[in-house]
Design brief:
Bound molecules: flavin mononucleotide
Oligomer: single chain
Structural class: alpha/beta
Radius of gyration: 16 Å
Number of domains: 2
Number of helices: 6
CATH superfamily of the largest domain: Flavodoxin domain
Distance between the termini: 9 Å
Mean pLDDT: 96
Shape: globular
CATH architecture of the largest domain: 3-Layer(aba) Sandwich
Order of helices and strands: EHEEHHEHEEHEH
Length: 177
């Protein structure tokens, strides 16, 4: 039985929800999983885990600095077991942007992170204008306008393909075995 660590950075909660879904699927398939917010944990007992999936949402074309701090601090622990990085963003609502080579945010992570993940996944996130500040909403609307996405102030659209999230969970377990 594999034990998988699902660690994440989430600003608004959607990457957290995806991480929980990954763990639930792993457990439903008979393995073990633990979900950890990288900013809400003091110590990870790395030895318990056979593999790790680290997820982070894209914010203004990059990632929160704590994501890079975490990967720098735990570079060895991440690299010394099967691992995967999943990147959550709304440009990935377009299927071609879920191909790693076509997703500039994933490429940016690979460029900036000292930990170079052996396995990567791009997951479409959620547009949620009502929960964002006017400034954030305005900025995302501009991105959406440039990429033919939704720009209505009340728009709440979950672009995540949850079946694909389940498949990814199974893929991570396969990495561990
Ligand atoms: C402040 C802010 C900036 C964002 N910047 C981008 C961006 O540059 N490109 C993109 O595709 N998505 C961007 N997004 C969309 C998020 O990646 C998406 O909403 C994701 O689901 C957020 O996950 P979270 O709820 O875990 O924070 C941004 C969202 C916010 C709130």
């Amino acid at each position: 039985m594999a034990n998988i660590l699902v660690a994440y950075y989430s600003r608004g909660g959607h990457t957290a929800k995806i991480s929980q879904a990954i763990a639930q699927q792993i457990i439903a398939q008979g393995d073990q999983a633990e979900v950890v917010n990288i900013n809400d944990t003091n110590e990870i007992q790395w030895d318990k885990f056979d593999a790790v999936a680290l997820g982070a949402c894209v914010l203004y074309g990059s990632y929160h600095k704590s994501v890079f701090e975490f990967t720098r601090q735990h570079q060895h622990e991440l690299a010394s077991r099967p691992h995967s990085f999943f990147c959550v963003n709304v440009v990935a609502r377009k299927p071609e942007k879920r191909i790693p080579e076509n997703n500039k945010y994933l490429q940016k992570f690979l460029e900036l992170s000292e930990w170079k993940p052996q396995d990567v996944k791009i997951i479409a996130g959620k547009v949620d204008y009502p929960s964002w500040t006017w400034y954030d909403s305005l900025a995302i609307k501009l991105i959406m306008k440039m990429t033919d996405g939704p720009t209505g102030s009340k728009d709440v659209i979950d672009y995540t393909d949850w079946d694909d999230v389940n498949q990814y969970a199974e893929h991570v377990v396969h990495l561990a075995k």
